[in-house]
Design a protein that fits this description.
- By secondary structure, the protein is an alpha+beta fold.
- The protein is built from 8 helices and 7 strands.
- The protein has 2 domains: 50 residues, no CATH class; 175 residues, no CATH class.
- Helix 2 links the parallel strand 1 and strand 2.
- It is elongated.
- The relative contact order is 0.08.
Length: 246
């Protein structure tokens, strides 16, 4: 949501329901605070979709305590990630990235905040296991430097001096490992696939000195989405050639 207007609340509701439907879940009831959720435009959409709603008491948000506690956990996580990145890279990261930090905190929470049965919130919601869908190496440090493959060169390669970007999360419209990166020069946020990540902010001192960091080669080898995918395809081919299932 980009504002607290009734139109934005309704748009968020419709997008949430479309995302839920993609996982086979139909929303039939809401439990909400008062305010925008009690407005006619919101209740009209509920009636249109044969949905019901119940409200907390006025100034009694504790009646929706589970959600309020999750909101606090996610907010604290986002604040921690943003402060960590800003401390290590003050030239590139600022509080203006708060919406991205909050969204990434939600993404991490949904995948890794496990209950006593070892299930994540996303698994509890959809009823499906994510063990085969989640690759830990696809997750990276929020606000860290990353470098996009320079395909304009005759021999495409990563160049720390020309392709520096800021990692701000993942695209919701592409494959799960497509990163969203922010250009510190133009302010453009774009989805990128061929990226190498500096999760430990090791390259910044070299960039400040206008030199190629000593760790640059190792970072390209170990933290590249392109190389990791090539390795996965290589392993899959080896299994197929040996007579196993791909």
């Amino acid at each position: 949501m980009t504002s607290c207007s009734g139109a934005e609340a309704l748009r968020a509701k419709q997008e949430f329901e479309a995302w839920s439907a993609s996982h086979g879940i139909q929303i039939s009831h809401y439990h909400a605070d008062n305010g925008r959720f009690a407005e006619a435009v919101f209740k009209d959409d509920l009636r249109l979709n044969a949905q019901s709603i119940a409200f907390c008491g006025v100034n009694a948000h504790h009646q929706n305590g589970i959600v309020e506690r999750q909101n606090r956990s996610i907010t604290e996580s986002a604040r921690t990630m943003l402060l960590h990145a800003e401390r290590l890279w003050p030239e590139g990261v600022s509080p203006l990235l708060w919406p991205f930090a909050l969204k990434y905190a939600v993404h991490i929470h949904n995948h890794f905040s496990l209950n006593d049965k070892g299930l994540s919130p996303l698994e509890q919601f959809t009823g499906h296991s994510l063990l085969d869908d989640v690759d830990l190496t696809d997750f990276h440090t929020f606000g860290s430097p990353c470098y996009v493959l320079d395909a304009a060169q005759h021999v495409p390669k990563w160049d720390p001096r020309s392709s520096l970007q800021i990692f701000v999360g993942f695209s919701a419209l592409h494959a799960r490992n497509v990163a969203m990166v922010l250009s510190p020069f133009s302010g453009l946020v774009s989805p990128q696939y061929h990226v190498t990540f500096d999760d430990h902010f090791q390259t910044l001192n070299g960039l400040r000195d206008t030199t190629v960091p000593e760790s640059w080669k190792d970072i390209c080898i170990h933290n590249s989405t392109r190389l990791k995918v090539e390795e996965r395809f290589s392993q899959s081919s080896n299994i197929t050639e040996s007579g196993g299932e791909a």
